[in-house]
Amino acid sequence: MKPDKVLSMIGIAARAGSIASGEFSTEKAAKGGRAYLVILAKDASQNTKKHFSDMCAYREIPYFEYADKKQLGNCIGKEYRASLAVTDENLGGAIIKRLTETEN
After folding, report:
1. What pLDDT score was predicted for residue 1?
2. What's the CA gap between 77 and 61, in Å, rounded?
3. pTM (2 decimals)?
4. Helix-, strand-, coil-residue percentages of the chain, each rounded to 5
5. How far apart are CA 22 and CA 63, in angstroms?
6. Packing angle between helix 23-31 and helix 46-59, nearest 10 degrees?
7. What is the sign, positive or negative, of the torsion defined by CA atoms of 4, 82, 34, 16?
8. How far is 51 from 25, CA to CA, in rounded Å?
9. For residue 82, which of 52, 103, 61 has the smallest C-alpha distance?
10. Helices (H) and strands (E) in the chain, counts
11. How many CB atoms lie within 10 A of CB 16?
12. Residue 44 CB partners (closer than 8 Å, separation 6+)
């Protein structure tokens, strides 16, 4: 299995201290204007997905659903994470670019 570039980049952002993970921290970063990208696990609940997609749309923050809770958590050194926000503009932009490439 080849390494996942998006998850690797999220891991780099985590080691740089540019990740807010977990629903509370992700929401706080988004509402505080520090989030440049929000990523939700594909297996997060529908309620959670709606909450974050609406919040990101209102605040014009790029929003993606990617991987599952276990993969998202593992790439940042945690066990499970349903949501995370990238708080560095350059890293966020690079991850968005990679995410849009994988969607096509």
Report:
1. 44
2. 24
3. 0.93
4. 55, 15, 35
5. 15
6. 10
7. negative
8. 14
9. 52
10. 5, 4
11. 13
12. 65, 69, 82, 83
Axis-axis angle for helices 89-103, 5-15 (nearest 10): 170
* pLDDT digit string, tens, across residues 2-30: 568 999 999 999 999 999 999 999 999 99
For residue 21, the surrounding DSSP H or E stretch is strand 19-21
d(CA 69, CA 40): 8
Please, what is the end-to-end C-alpha distance for the chain in angstroms? 20
What's the pLDDT score for residue 101? 86
pLDDT digit string, tens, across residues 34-78: 999 999 999 999 999 999 999 999 999 999 999 999 999 999 999
How many CB atoms sit inside 10 A of residue 76's CB? 16
